[in-house]
């Protein structure tokens, strides 16, 4: 190999170590614009990293890689000399049959020495005993591979969004114009992702989660969380909700759906989301918890925490799975809340315990009538007794247990309690199906929480789109119908108006059986044309109050067809405002607290490097495209780009210094204090003590009745 001619070149890496620090040429500071076609003795650097960068850029341009080698210190331990060598320096022994012996004993090196705070390049040797990489291979040289800060942000964003390393690398390669221009390999990317995960785990999964919550609280003062610890300071349970969840609860919190059906990570913690339905009948998140077990004390702590975080406003109705511990906790914490059981689980269990009987079409219809079709408690009792007698089911254990719980699952016993027409926790289970896809036994708590928050963001985005659509106008045919229908179209959301319109059209199929008048009100007796069941509607002609025996307004918040028929018979062309429930209207959130939007340009935590990169590239592309039309345009662009690059580099240096100062300050706050029940303050939160058994899946946790099915076969009669 040909060495670079220079009068200060050494003939051996072990000679002339005492070369004068001051060359006859005046020292100069290194900039990135320096031409890397030779190494100059006497070149000055502000620090060791600049010297390494200087030699590394030269090495990459030549086609070899470098690494750091000898460090020399004075008697006080201060570094006074550094040596950078070719990556093939020395000898290596292959540690396995599949590993290559890559070191060839190359003697090339560069040495720098410190003098009064300035590092001077004092000597170097540039003879190599190996083949250099050609231009198509230089991007693979190890010392030239580096993941920049900008690329780190893009990688973090994509990995957080669920993209794998291969997809992320493919995107970056496309953005940079080829893999050789990315400056790192797929293997480097995999190592980077794994290193970040390892650092996160070493910091403590539970502690990192609390630190994450603290940061979110700084960004969103309405964000709140609570953590419960055991006696040894291990995290047991935790709950969190953001500011928007609090607003949603204020608008839609009269009905809460709570389900804890899936274990999600290596600690075996149970995902327990609190959800509801908004004015479009879409899912909305009120908060989420992770629980270490399903005991009464755990549920009591969670429900009390939820109540406190939601301003001590009790829900009207709460839907849950059938679990005795949960029921006991609800009775203790929500004494005035109607506890309803999941109809979906009831149907699933019926298929297991009544499989023999459900094969009979007659029994299936009778059972369905008892579960869904009764309009009063008396009607339910009549049909239930008839079903038991007709099919000789007296003493059937599962049906007897089900009958004892009838007030919690049969709609006929809850007609006067608002439930928003919710009959199942299946909405909550749909959230769990999402969580199951993004969680695994190795995923950290912080990552799971992040993904759950992303799910909530997607739901809110759908709500905003539906809100926008509803504000653009009203259904065309609504404007050509009655005043009540026009009024409903203006006020209700599109989804609720569709249901209201169905009730309105059903008035055409009602038959008036009779009217009873007294001094205070009129009582109308109505029935459907094809049915014999009668409905009684009480109407006050003075204040236009109306109430129906079907109690649809009480349970759903919408007037039923029977009430609408009576209003029509009395010439009422618009509904009284008391019968237009605000939670179903387009303006449900007007007047509520609003969480201020954060300006992304001022919030580094929310700043998206991917979006910023795309915006800058779009703005710069046209100018760059025009600049290459002739040499003058090219020179203008090159001049301004050099100035721009220097300003950005100075900004990065300043930003790094600021970040180092901020990180040193934040280290003092990295460990939190949590006040546990015995008022002892701790300085470090430990990970949950429980470990998930090997081989346990993310399948839905089964209730007591389902587990009982495995122990005792269904009874047959």
Q: How does this model look, in words?
A:
- This protein is 41% helix and 14% strand.
- With 717 residues, it is α+β, with helices and mostly antiparallel strands.
- Among the domains are: 101 residues, no CATH class; 54 residues; 227 residues, no CATH class; 110 residues, no CATH class.
- Strands 6, 7, 8, 9, 10, 11, 12 and 13 form an eight-stranded mixed β-sheet that branches. A five-stranded antiparallel β-sheet has the order 1-5-4-3-2, covered by helices on one side. A four-stranded antiparallel β-sheet has the order 14-15-16-17, covered by helices on one side.
- Strand 16 and strand 17 form a beta hairpin.
- The longest helix is centred in the C-terminal third of the chain and has 36 residues.
- It is elongated, with a radius of gyration of 36 Å.
């Amino acid at each position: 190999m040909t060495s670079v001619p220079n009068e200060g070149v050494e003939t051996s890496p072990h000679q002339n170590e005492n070369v004068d620090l001051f060359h006859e040429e005046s020292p100069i500071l290194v900039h990135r614009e320096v031409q890397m076609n030779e190494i100059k003795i006497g070149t000055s650097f502000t620090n060791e990293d600049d010297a390494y960068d200087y030699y590394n850029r030269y090495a990459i341009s030549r086609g070899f890689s470098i690494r750091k080698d000898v460090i020399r210190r004075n008697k006080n331990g201060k570094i006074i000399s550094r040596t950078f060598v070719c990556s093939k320096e020395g000898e290596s022994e292959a540690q396995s049959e599949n590993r290559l012996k890559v070191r060839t004993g190359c003697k090339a090196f560069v040495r720098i020495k410190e003098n009064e705070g300035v590092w001077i390049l004092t000597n170097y040797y540039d003879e190599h005993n190996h083949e250099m990489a050609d231009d198509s291979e230089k991007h693979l040289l190890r010392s030239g591979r580096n993941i920049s800060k900008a690329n780190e942000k893009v990688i973090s964003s994509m990995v957080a969004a669920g993209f794998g390393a291969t997809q992320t690398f493919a995107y970056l390669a496309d953005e940079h114009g080829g893999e050789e221009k990315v400056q790192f390999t797929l293997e480097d990317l995999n190592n980077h992702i794994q290193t970040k995960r390892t650092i996160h785990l070493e910091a403590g999964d539970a502690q990192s989660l609390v630190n994450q919550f603290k940061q979110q609280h700084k960004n969103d003062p309405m964000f709140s969380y609570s953590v419960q610890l055991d006696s040894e300071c291990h995290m047991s349970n935790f709950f969190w909700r953001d500011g928007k969840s609090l607003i949603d609860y204020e608008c839609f919190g009269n009905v809460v759906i709570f389900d804890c059906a899936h274990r999600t990570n290596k600690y075996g913690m149970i995902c327990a989301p609190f959800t509801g339905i908004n004015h479009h009948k879409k899912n909305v998140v009120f908060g989420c918890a992770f629980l270490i077990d399903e005991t009464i004390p755990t549920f009591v702590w969670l429900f009390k925490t939820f109540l406190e975080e939601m301003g001590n406003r009790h829900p009207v109705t709460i839907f849950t799975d059938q679990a005795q511990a949960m029921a006991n906790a609800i009775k203790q914490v929500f004494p005035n809340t109607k506890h309803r059981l999941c109809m979906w689980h009831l149907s699933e269990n019926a298929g297991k315990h009544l499989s023999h009987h459900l094969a009979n079409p007659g029994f299936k219809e009778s059972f369905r009538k008892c579960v869904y079709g009764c309009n009063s408690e008396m009607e339910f009792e009549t049909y239930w007794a008839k079903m038991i007698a007709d099919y000789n089911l007296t003493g059937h254990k599962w049906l007897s247990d089900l009958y004892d719980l009838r007030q919690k699952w049969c709609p006929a016993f809850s007609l006067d309690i608002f439930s928003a027409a919710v009959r199942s926790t299946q909405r909550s289970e749909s959230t769990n199906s999402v969580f199951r896809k993004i969680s695994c036994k190795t995923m950290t708590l912080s990552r799971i929480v992040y993904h759950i928050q992303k799910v909530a963001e997607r739901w809110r985005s759908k709500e905003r789109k539906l809100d926008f659509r509803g504000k653009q106008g009203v259904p065309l045919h609504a404007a050509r119908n009655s005043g009540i229908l026009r009024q409903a179209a203006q006020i209700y959301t599109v989804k609720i108006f569709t249901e209201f319109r169905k009730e309105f059209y059903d008035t055409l199929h009602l038959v008036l059986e009779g009217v009873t008048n007294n001094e205070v009100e009129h009582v109308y007796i109505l029935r459907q044309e094809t049915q014999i069941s009668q409905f009684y509607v009480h109407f006050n002609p003075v204040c236009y109050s109306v109430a129906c025996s079907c109690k649809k307004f009480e349970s759903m918040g919408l007037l039923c067809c029977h009430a609408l028929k009576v209003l029509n018979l009395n010439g009422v062309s618009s509904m009284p405002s008391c019968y237009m429930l605000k939670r179903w209207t387009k303006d449900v959130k007007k007047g509520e607290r609003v969480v201020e939007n954060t300006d992304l340009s001022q919030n580094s935590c929310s700043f998206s490097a991917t979006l910023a990169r795309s915006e800058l590239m779009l703005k710069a592309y046209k100018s760059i495209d025009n600049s290459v039309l002739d040499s003058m345009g090219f020179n203008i662009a090159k001049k301004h780009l050099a100035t721009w690059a220097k300003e950005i580099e100075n900004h990065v240096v300043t930003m790094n210094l600021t970040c180092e100062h901020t990180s040193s300050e934040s280290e003092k706050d990295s460990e939190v204090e949590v006040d546990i029940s015995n008022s002892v303050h701790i300085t470090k939160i430990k990970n949950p003590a429980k470990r998930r058994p090997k081989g346990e899946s993310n399948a839905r946790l089964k209730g007591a009745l389902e587990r009982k099915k495995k122990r005792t076969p269904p009874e047959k009669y």
